[in-house]
Amino acid sequence: MKRILVACGNGIATSTVVATKVRNFLAEKGVQAETTQTKLMEVPGKVQGYDLLITTGQFEGQTGDVPVVKGMPILTGIGAEQTMLEILQVVKD
Fold first, then answer.
1. pLDDT > 90? residue 21
2. Would you give the end-to-end CA distance of the chain in angstroms?
């Protein structure tokens, strides 16, 4: 089971949409994933122990060795497929 942290400004609206879409996409590809939503400002204190961080806003903080994918294309639809494939690649590695 892969653990994915999804962060947006308030940890509620956009992160919920992204988390749901990512979980559904990965399930279709045979990858089980657990998503947790959080505020961008809380990421540095929460990110350790996750396999991936997906952000929907500006994030310049430290994540240690946790890879980061920008999730805004999942919301806008522009480049969403490429972003989903990038997420799949990260969680399969």
1. yes
2. 13
